[in-house]
Amino acid sequence: MRKHFIFTILTVGSMVFPYCSFSEVPSTVEMRKLNTNNLIPLIRHHDWRVRYNAIVYGLSQFRKIKVDGRAHEFKRFEGYEQIRAALIDLLKKELLFAKDEKTFGDQGEGEGYGGYLLELLAAVCGLKDKEALPVLVETIGGGIGRGPAVIRTLAEFGDTAVEPIIAKLHDNENPNRTGAAHVLEQMLRMKSQDEVKLSTTSIKRVKGVLKETLRGQSSPWTKRHSVKALGYIKDEDIVPFLKSISEKDPYMRVIDASFRGGKTGKKMRIYPVREEAEKVLKRIKTEKLGNKEQQKN
To answer: Phi and psi for 105 in degrees, rounded to 5?
Structure first.
């Protein structure tokens, strides 16, 4: 069946979408067979439900594998550059809308809209393309953006992502700083498992920034990710630095003792950042003992 497209402009908040009117919107089955020229207007459609179907069903023919159960890596195909540009541009527009509404992932459209945003993020992650790096970095302060697909994808960029992520670690907003520390933690973990390449210069730079973060006034969540990140760096100065954090970090919370197996109604003080540092130090010690045993054998 031949489809006829009519383009006008629809403005929603600060978002501008081409208004694509169809004599009949293609079914999800038909979308799986559309070429890129016909898919792009659907990805740019003014109705997020049509955009959702285009991303989930229309692009399924070009996907290769799943990452973390959601992000799909794309094959290279005819029209890839145009699809890439359309997806990145769409995520930029959603972010502009989110900034107006103050929350990324809840534009008054309910769970369905949040699911659409997850699929859009998964698709942009699946590009595995450096062109997508700047817009993905902008998502890490939001609840959806801190999901495993985005965190892992940014970590996989390795050296290329280091400076943009560090810039977010210096951001004024706590959620952005926490997201950035989480990415650096993931990056260093993957480096320790030889899944990501990081230069000596990048590791030195990241180490210095993480130490600075732990000495400063960042939130406990940012500090906890920073502590775990430092634990993957094998330099000799890491252990004494983390030992100092485990003894002196000032952040303290008062909780009901029942959360720690104590008596209900009794209050107790806890030091979450210190506790995280103690866990990391124990892991480092265990790994060192394991390495010594392997050397003996």
So the answer is: 115, -5
The span from the CA of 189 to the CA of 230, in Å, is 9
Separation CA 154–CA 150 (nearest Å): 6
Q: Phi-psi region for residue 110, left (φ > 0), alpha (ψ -120 to 50) or beta?
A: left
Q: Is residue 248 part of a domain?
A: no
Instruction: Tell whether 35 is covered by a domain.
Output: yes
The C-alpha atoms of residue 146 and residue 154 are separated, in whole angstroms, by 11
Q: Do the beta carbons of residue 178 and residue 221 sit within 8 Å?
A: yes
Contact between 153 and 125 under an 8 Å Cβ cutoff? The reply is yes
Q: Is the pLDDT of residue 106 over 60?
A: no
Q: Which of 31, 20, 23, 32 is nearest to 2 (CA)?
A: 23
Q: Please say if the pLDDT value at position 291 is more than 60.
A: yes
**In sequence order, what are the residues at sequence separation of 6 or more whose Cβ sits closer than 8 angstroms to the Cβ of residue 39?**
31, 54, 58, 59, 83
How do residues 164-197 score in pLDDT, each as one tens digit?
Answer: 999 999 999 899 999 999 999 999 999 999 999 9
Whether residue 168 lies inside any domain: the answer is no
Question: Regarding predicted confidence, which is higher, 17 or 140?
Answer: 140
Helix spans in 158-199 (H): 159-169, 174-192
Q: What mean pLDDT is reported for the chain?
A: 83
What is the rounded (10 degree) CA torsion for 270, 276, 278, 282?
140
Q: Is the pLDDT of residue 11 over 50?
A: no
User: What is the domain extent for residue 85?
Assistant: 1-148
Tell me how far apart the alpha carbons of residues 53 and 6 are, in angstroms, rounded to a whole number: 19
Residue 155 lies in a domain: no
Residue of 82, 71, 69 lying closest to 38 (CA atoms): 82
Quote the pLDDT of residue 66: 54
Number of domains the chain is built from: 1
